[in-house]
Amino acid sequence: MAFEIIETKNIKSNLLSYESNVPAITKYMGSKRAILDFVIKALDDNYTGGVVCDLFGGTCILSGALGKIVPMHSNDIQEYSAVMARTYLSDYNWDLYSDEILNEISNKASDYVQFVKKKNKGLDFQYGEKMTIKDFVSLEDEQQRLINYNFKVSHYLFIKYYSGTYWSYEQCLWIDALRKIADDYGGTPLKNVIISSLMYAMSYNSQSTGHYAQYREATDLASKSDILIYRQKEILPYFINKFKQLYASLGANKLRHTITTMDYAECLDQLSPNTLVYADPPYAFVHYSRFYHALETLVKYDYPEVDHKGRYRNDRHQSPFCKATEVKAAFSTLFSKIKNKKSNLVLSYSNTGMITLDEILEIAKTSLNSNYRISIEEVAYKHSTMGRRKDKSKSVSEYLVIANRSQ
Predict the structure, then answer these.
(1) Which CATH architecture has domain 15-91+255-282+320-405?
(2) Contact yes or no for 405/344 (Cβ under 8 A)
(3) b/e burial code for range 234-249 (CB count within 10 A of at least 16 → b)
(4) Cα separation of 65 and 56, whole Å?
């Protein structure tokens, strides 16, 4: 997306009047939803007017919270993040659509599901409560082999790539159908609402643990029974529920927001001076492009080359913040570019991150000049690990490293 410089230096808002009940779009590791008060209080303390840049947008919950009161620049290297940002930040006039718009979308998707079934009558995968493990695994394997099947319909990416993995064939049919209907509304904000609602439905129907790094296999009765719970869920009711929430939450928005899909360093180079930057880089060695590749594929819908058991895209972004050999240099680049832009920074990090707080502070001290005052705030909270049972979350300390430039 082309970058647009917006003159907003005279805009000053009270960030503490943010929207606290933003409908979440998907399960996400490291989401700041639980500590929005903590983050936004720090942003408000260091806000001098103009744009707030969310440098690593993720699920864009910050844009959802602040987007009605301050111009946002939401950036993330992942395309799925841009869709969520557009969902929260677009200007909606619901009068342009029928009062029955949700029913129209649902009915069109249902028609496409039936169309695909008629075109592929031999594909029928029925789960039963009394299936043996052997029969269950056989049914899963049969669906997984559809990656070699020649579908002759317009939208078939998920039934081909992901049947019998994170979702069943039936669930994938609905994912493809709703994604097709989203394309029917291309060029309108409604397309992003449809895709975001579908992301939510995918997240809560997936038999994995909330991300897509790996799907589970039935190795015993307990695992078979648990996977079966998710195989028997339906995409459409979850889609409808989230669409209704977003419909009720979203409305007119005349602020001039910017949404980009840049590398963090490139984005910082493009920012106007004196932009307040919130940076929430990855903390761990795991790459978000691996954990959320299915969302990227949903958005791009480009039938990519995939590999490994998880059927990952082979063009996944590798963040330097996730690499032990590159993370310090990445932080040095971050602080140096903040200094060059004469901007304030609020940086989120965890005590479980790739490097220590002391190391970050040392890098900040070296990279920033004496015009900057560096301070730290800390809060304890439960960090979601996306585990299925006992390891769903763990207690961590979340730090805010604040670099405030003296006036």
Answers:
(1) 3-Layer(aba) Sandwich (3.40)
(2) yes
(3) ebbebbbebbebbbee
(4) 15
- Of 239, 258, 203, 211, the closest CA to residue 82 belongs to 258
Q: For 356-394, how does the pLDDT look when each residue is reduced to its tens digit (9 = 90+)?
A: 999 999 999 999 988 999 999 999 876 555 554 555 566
Q: Which of 81, 89, 43 is nearest to 319 (CA)?
A: 81
* Token digits of residue 297: 């594929």
Give the pLDDT confidence of 126-173 residue by residue, as tens digits.
Answer: 999 899 999 999 999 999 999 999 999 999 999 999 999 999 999 999
CB 376 within 8 A of CB 403: no
Phi first, then psi: give them for residue 276, nearest 5 degrees.
Answer: -80, 125
In the chain, what are the domain boundaries? 15-91+255-282+320-405, 96-249
Sheet order of strands, 345-350 included: 258-260, 72-75, 52-54, 276-279, 345-350, 393-405, 372-384
Amino acid at 254: K
CB 402 within 8 A of CB 376: yes
Count of other CB atoms within 10 angstroms of residue 51: 24
**Neighbouring C-beta atoms of residue 78, cutoff 10 Å:** 21
Residue 319, C-beta contacts closer than 8 angstroms, at least 6 positions apart: 77, 281, 282, 287, 288, 289, 330
The answer to whether the beta carbons of residues 43 and 404 sit under 8 Å apart is no
| HSE-up (13 A, CA, CB side) for residue 301 | 17
Sequence-ordered strand ranges (E) for 12-118: 52-54, 72-75
Claim: this prediction has a pTM higher than 0.70 = yes
